[in-house]
Write a structure and sequence with these properties.
Layout: H1 2-17, H2 27-33, H3 55-58, H4 61-71, E1 94-98, E2 102-107, E3 118-123, E4 129-130, E5 137-142, H5 148-151
GO molecular function: metal ion binding
Family: Belongs to the cytochrome c oxidase subunit 5B family.
GO biological process, one term: mitochondrial electron transport, cytochrome c to oxygen
Amino acid sequence: MVALLRSFRAVARPALALPKVQVARAFSASALRSAGAGPPQLIGDGVKAGEVPTDRQQATGIERFELIGKAEGVDVFDMAPLPSDRIGTLQNPIEVLSFYPERHVGCTGSPADSHETVWLHVTKELKNHRCPECGSVYTLNFEPNADYESHHH
């Protein structure tokens, strides 16, 4: 048995010692990776040499998106609180707008701050979600984006 193992090791050593060949990725594979609709490019104009840039000139990405929204008077992240003047019922639940099929909602009761914040995971699969503390009912108003499928693989 020992002799058999020695013969296997002798055969395996040259195979392990062979140099590994690095294969360059084909140029055509790069195009497949970048296929489809991508997000809009949020890069500013920049600043001329010798000047100090403003926040709007220097910002990129999501920060620039937020600054442009504030300049146009739009709350791009929809940070307004949900209505807390009533308790949602099964017949009249509190609607939560979402562009994604799920959302986290913090319920503080009605009137606001009646109880500690209870976080609910509201999804489109279940029609109504009830707060275990106050009984308020929430439903997800899912409005899918046309580009939703191309951004989430």
